Amino acid sequence: MAMVDKTETSLDAFKEDHSEKKIDTSRKLKVAIIGTGWIAGAHMEEYKKMPDVEIVAAADLIPGKAKNFMTAWGYPNVRCYLSGHEMLENEKELDAVSVCTYNRQHAPCAIDALEHGVNVLLEKPFTVTLEEAVEVMKAEKKSGKIISVGFQPRFNPNMQMVKKIVESGELGRIYYIQTGGGRRRGIPTPFGTTFIEKDTAGIGAMGDIGCYSLDMVLNAIGYPKPLTVTGYTSDFFGKSAAYWKAENKPANYTELFGVDDFAAGLIRLEGGIILDFRIAWAMNLDTSGDTIIMGTKASLRIPSTECWNGSIGGPMTIYHDVAGTSVGVTTTVPMLPNTREGEFYHKIRSFLDAVKTGGKAPVPTSQIIYNQAIIDGIVRSAKAGREIEIQIPQI
Ligand SMILES: NC(=O)c1ccc[n+]([C@@H]2O[C@H](COP(=O)([O-])OP(=O)(O)OC[C@H]3O[C@@H](n4cnc5c(N)ncnc54)[C@H](O)[C@@H]3O)[C@@H](O)[C@H]2O)c1
Fold this sequence. Notes:
This protein is globular. The chain is of the alpha/beta class. The protein has helices spanning about 5-10, 40-45, 65-70, 85-90, 105-115, 130-145, 155-170, 205-220, 240-245, 255, 345-355, 365-385; strands at about 30-35, 55-60, 80, 95-100, 120, 145-150, 175-180, 225-235, 260-270, 275-280, 290-295, 300, 315-320, 325-335, 390. Bound molecules: nicotinamide-adenine-dinucleotide.
């Protein structure tokens, strides 16, 4: 019998044109940055490419930081402030802000911007707690402005392929998902300790990288509501003096560490789907496993231990039957090249287009609140030592 190769025919449906659209420059958007740290640089790199953007202001709590940042990016004359609030009080014509602060300042800065009538591109994770996310959404609703949450992997063709495969019906009814990933060693302290302190980060591996894995699979299946969660968090590596010694970091990092470096959760989703999730900044293992999406007709394996980079780790595999029999047929889904502009460009471009046209947020809070509810649920369940229900108030 000839070998069945479904690859070409199955994949034809997913081919797409990613060519760049023409940008209307008849209206310039006035944009500012709140928090001029590490990720703000990635925002600036893309804003600089946008012919319809005028960068007008920036703010950072650390004296001189915003000014130095803007000068380094070639904008020595933009107005700089010592807090997002001070900037919003003084800049009356802003169309949009990028909120690039550490996690704990996401909610206050986003709410403040919305209350000043400014659209928000908010870095991930959405917030630290579910309660904060609800408050942000209330402010969004009241303001009539939009928030888009900064999940740039959404704009990567391979990530989009995951969603297209699920939506095509190729997998049948989805009933079990495993996702997550992580690093053997890699607690991020690139420019200090804002990622590891309770007062600045609030959540660790979950907020830094776990939220991406959750977004990859939840977006693919249409963001069903999470109902219950059994969660676990730990901090064995971050609290270990030996860990920081091996990383050549000061001894006080052991004291400063106040978040999760590993988290796991078993989440019951609406529609009878079980989501099995784990994420590690550090572990005694190479990987905590691929992402798998199991369905009644077929299952999908996504080599994905680093999906937060917007990419998958290799070709995906679909396991399915042919002619009603399980004859070991698989379809290899080849890796797609990235768009010419890259996913970060599209994260920013799609937000600007929505602001200009009065359109919907490309990565809407109405979806990401479920992502946040899972993270919040894991934290609460871990504390309680039992399964908990997820309840999201009406907004
Ligand atoms: N999308 C991505 O690929 C990506 C990558 C890295 C980080 N992030 C996210 O971006 C956020 C920031 O990360 P980072 O590495 O740039 O952190 P960082 O600590 O380097 O920078 C944050 C800056 O915000 C400033 N800040 C805090 N509150 C402020 C306020 N109210 N007003 C003005 N400035 C304020 C701080 O002083 C600091 O300089 C985090 O939430 C992180 O999860 C996203």
